[in-house]
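User: Run a structure prediction on this.
Assistant: Running it now.
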Amino acid sequence: MKNQFNKLTKIQLIIFLATFIGSVQNANCQTFSEKNAVINLGVGLLPTWYSGNSWFKTTVPQTVLIFDYGIKEAGRGVIGVGAYLGYAAKKGSLGPFEFKGSFVSFGVRGSYHYEFVDKLDTYVGLMLGFRIATITALDPISGVKASRSDFGSNDFNSKLAYSFFVGARYYFSNNFAAFGELGYGVNVLTVGLSYKL
């Protein structure tokens, strides 16, 4: 998992540098401005939580809610702050045990938005937060519960979380947009819809 995270960070850094080196000099940020508030609701692709076992099936897909607020113009772009909340749930059986697990990731974010193309809000940023993984396991015949150490995976640990992210929102009306974001949360890639308040 650590090697995947390091590889992901390098890919995101390359995308970030390529995007900003190729910037258009006369671009301005009209899709995301100071005092704009945007809500993103998306589903996750490429899950980060316990994705390596076929016996542990998804019951609630990786669902992500993101809030962005423009606080200050900076050059030709806008600095934003916001919040992230992601949730996923799984269940399965292994041997006599029946498992149920949930994963929550939440945090605060800082971002920089820059409009390279008309109607396209591109942004990069950092998130600092926390991830909480819970699991219950029960042998329905004997009533014995498994301990966390029996699972053999760090995916069930709760800990601080941080992420570098890059994303874009394309507005097909004044208030609605489709968005995609690459970053480390309950998943690596999130796609969905955005609404500007």
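The helical segments are 2-21.
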